[in-house]
Amino acid sequence: MHERRLFYTPLWQTSMVDTEPRWTLMRQAMLDRIGQLVRSEPVVSKSNIGGWQSEDDLCRHREVEWLIERILERANEIAPSYTPEGRFDGGVMWANVNGRFNFNSVHLHADSLLSGVIYLKVAREDQGVIQFFDAREGAPASYWRSFARLEHETELTQGVVTVTPREGDILFFPGWLKHWVTPNLTDEPRVSVSFNLSMS
User: Fold this and answer.
1) What 3-state class would DSSP assign to 137?
2) What is the spatial distance between Cα 96 and Cα 180, in angstroms, rounded to a whole number?
3) Is this model's pTM higher than 0.90 or not?
4) pLDDT tens digits for 162-194?
5) Helix, coil or strand: residue 21
6) pLDDT, tens digit, for every residue of 30-59?
7) Sheet with 103-107, side-by-side order of all strands
């Protein structure tokens, strides 16, 4: 029997750690800059519950220019999934610093074709994971279970996908995909940079 998959939801994942020789040096420079911003700029309230988020102009800092170039390189590997002619060529970025019990509530990135996050500082699962929610109306997790006992989740029936981040991981996802970041249960801050990309 032929299967045709309709309206699938992609999540792309890659890592900077093994592919970028300057990762350790540039990561520290970005962490230092973000630390300075935490001390000098007020928190921006977006999806954060506690914690600190920067304005979405993080790209203006020299230490982050390097990062946006690498993110765009990888995003343009994804671009043909959207259109054969287009290229991602810019966007906005902001930093997230989540301390103990801080998290990001369920949200999406409105008006963004491709969004994502890169993890600069995370060492353990209890510093928080990111969970993505089934975007389909009448999704299996909320609807089908009323009619059938689905004891084992499959790609077709799962309602939530959990990703445990590692330092250097980059996740790309459609901006309309709902997600949240679970609370950090440690005293070590989790530091990440989120972004929304634009295409020409």
Assistant:
1) coil
2) 13
3) yes
4) 999 999 999 999 999 999 999 999 999 999 999
5) coil
6) 999 999 999 999 999 989 999 999 999 999
7) 48-49, 103-107, 179-181, 130-133, 160-163
